[in-house]
């Protein structure tokens, strides 16, 4: 079996997507400068582009479908900000980003420091769970302010897409208030020795107010990992914007399907809730080329009979339709 780092696997996915995506968006790298709110954030922007489809070559021979620095087609455009999953990458949802850009949205995604494919140094610490929502607010600030094409955006039409831990991130951004102290019984029951559990035992549970962003008008969240007690009805009382909530049939990677069902019942405004039949958690990741499937079967193996390519076509269409409806 090929021995590749997760970051390299993500790049393989992206490289192979170039041969399967029919359209090309405008592509540009971004960097949100470090400030009092946190370190610099690196990422990418996908924009509507009127130029003929092309390819952009990145370092290491990685090829993306798109047109580098293509003039943005349109004005008063809606913005979608993207939060990746645990140990993911801003390239993790390139197919969805491209579909949204082709449909007239500007899409911006960043790496969450300390919780990426290339740097997982803080992935099991509370600091990541606290800072991720702030990262997204800083990204939106940047896109509506300092980004060189900010004038094409409509600040009243901002949405969010999040997968896995990115879905947790989005839930906080749109008004959820997690109770990190509620994880104590879980740590005691399981005898866990993770940095989060050690922080609980040391009395170092974060207590600062969660970072929200009222500019987000609609959100698509897929398979959020919700530990028992992290949220309750009171702590979700402010989550009232339109929400398209997805869950896999069987879960995985810390996601328990029943917990997503409970979330749906606790939300004050019922979401558009969709369960993907016969799917697992990683079915929300882009379809895997053979090289990646051999190197990382856990990311690429779906339950027997599940067609990931067909699902992603429907998933991306649903995201486009949802955001068009709610970001009018």
Describe the structure in your own words.
With 328 residues, this protein is α/β, with parallel strands linked by helices. The chain has one domain: Alpha/Beta hydrolase fold, catalytic domain (Rossmann fold, 3-Layer(aba) Sandwich). Helix content is 31%, strand content 20%. The protein has ten helices and ten strands. It has helices at 6-17, 94-102, 126-144, 165-173, 184-190, 195-201, 257-266, 290-295, 297-300, 308-326; strands spanning 25-32, 41-47, 55-57, 63-68, 77-83, 106-110, 153-163, 216-222, 243-248, 272-276. Strands 3-4-1-2-6-5-7-8-9-10 form a ten-stranded mixed β-sheet, sandwiched between helices. α3 crosses α4 (165-173). The longest helix is centred in the middle third of the chain and has 19 residues, at 126-144. The radius of gyration is 19 Å and the shape is globular.
């Amino acid at each position: 079996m090929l021995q590749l780092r997760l970051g390299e696997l993500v790049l393989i996915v992206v490289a192979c997507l170039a041969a399967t995506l029919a359209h090309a968006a405008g592509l540009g790298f971004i960097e949100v400068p470090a400030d009092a709110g946190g370190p610099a954030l690196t990422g990418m922007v996908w924009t509507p582009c009127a130029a003929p489809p092309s390819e952009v070559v990145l370092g290491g021979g990685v090829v993306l479908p798109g047109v580098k620095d293509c003039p943005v087609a349109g004005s008063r455009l809606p913005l979608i900000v993207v939060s990746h999953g645990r140990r993911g990458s801003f390239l993790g949802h390139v197919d969805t980003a491209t579909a949204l850009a082709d449909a007239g949205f500007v899409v911006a995604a960043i790496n969450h420091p300390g919780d990426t494919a290339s740097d997982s140094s803080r992935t099991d610490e509370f600091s990541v769970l606290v800072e991720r929502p702030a990262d997204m607010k800083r990204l939106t600030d940047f896109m509506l302010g300092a980004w060189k094409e900010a004038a094409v955006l409509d600040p009243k039409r901002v949405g969010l897409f999040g997968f896995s831990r990115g879905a947790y991130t989005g839930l906080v951004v749109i008004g959820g208030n997690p109770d990190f102290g509620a994880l104590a019984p879980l740590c005691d029951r399981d005898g866990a020795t993770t940095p989060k559990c050690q922080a609980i035992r040391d009395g170092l549970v974060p207590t600062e107010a969660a970072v929200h962003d009222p500019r987000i008008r609609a959100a698509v969240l897929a398979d959020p990992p919700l530990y028992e007690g992290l949220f309750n009805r009171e702590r979700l009382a402010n989550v009232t914007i339109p929400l398209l909530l997805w869950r896999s049939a069987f879960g995985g990677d810390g996601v328990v399907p029943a917990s997503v069902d409970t979330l749906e019942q606790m939300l004050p405004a019922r979401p558009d809730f969709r369960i993907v039949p016969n799917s697992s958690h990683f079915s929300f990741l882009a379809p895997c080329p053979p090289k990646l499937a051999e190197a990382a079967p856990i990311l690429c193996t779906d339950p027997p009979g599940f067609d990931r390519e067909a699902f992603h076509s429907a998933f991306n269409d649903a995201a486009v339709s949802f955001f068009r409806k709610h970001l009018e």
